[in-house]
Amino acid sequence: MIKVRKPGLATSVQDLGREGYYHLGIPPSGALDQYALSAANHLVGNPSGAAGLECTLIGPELEFRQDALVALSGALMSPRLDGEVVHQDTAFQVRAGQVLRFEFPKAGARTYLAVAGGIEVPLVLGSRSTYTLGALGGFQGRRLQEGDELPIGEPSGEGRAGNSLPMALRRSVGGDVTLRVVPGLYYERLTDAAKSSFFAEPWTVGSEADRIGYRFKGGSALSFQPREQPFGAGSDPSNIVDSCYPIGSIQVPAGLEPIVLHRDAVSGGGYAMIGTVISADLDLIGQMQPNQRAGFVAVTLEEALEARRVYKNA
């Protein structure tokens, strides 16, 4: 059992998500940095999709009520166990009664905590991930709160303290980020000048950046080709007749600031999608802090599929 002494800013139980329900309006949820959660699980002997904790910007304070094997991966939050530094990407033993604390991340936005046996909350539609807007999954369908007690599953016995992720497999966080984009169905609605500026100019993450989506600021406003709005669409040039939204799709309401939808996003609506950030780069967004710089670069569908293959085989 793990007792939550302080919940942090937005700590939740996540696994790799619940696929197959987006057409019903239920997003996949799951870790925003899937690689980091999978890496932490690997170090403690769990399946890659075991449920762990996603700790965002301000980490929790956790008291372990039983011995446990733990690993952390993702943002650099300077974790300390009873005041002693513990290292990222290396499994370590925790004894009953010890307390794990975090500081504000030096780089990155989300640290993932895996414990041997996983966080044993009930499965909901095949996943333990938390979807807070729908009060679905995770621990009582919400972020963690002070006093919560999280059950731990039965360890596989395959993890060992000291297991460490090879340096070649560790991913750095922080710094400027380049996000690869496949231009979408409505990309041709942009003017030539807007197409050029979107990919040429630098952007920064706005304060509105969460599991639903990331807003980017700082670039030029994007203009749309003039047209008579079709029946059923809103009056804004960026409006369309309602359509489905893929995870990673980029909206630009009123042409002002791009919003990249992430794993808790709604499944459809009435804004044009000018492109989609490729699946292999979604983890990068999950580790971005407000005011961090980013740029977008266009890629083909074939290049996106190859990037996904490389990501899956990492």
Automatic annotation (TrEMBL):
Gene3D superfamilies: Cyclophilin-like
GO MF terms held by the record: ATP binding; hydrolase activity
InterPro entries recorded: CT_A_B, Cyclophilin-like_dom_sf, PxpC
Keywords tagged on the record: ATP-binding, Hydrolase, Nucleotide-binding
Residue ranges occupied by any Carboxyltransferase domain in the UniProt entry: 23-314
Source species, domain of life: Bacteria
SUPFAM superfamilies in alphabetical order: Cyclophilin-like
The name this protein goes by in its record: Biotin-dependent carboxylase
Organism per entry: Pseudomonas fluorescens
Origin organism lineage: Bacteria, Pseudomonadati, Pseudomonadota, Gammaproteobacteria, Pseudomonadales
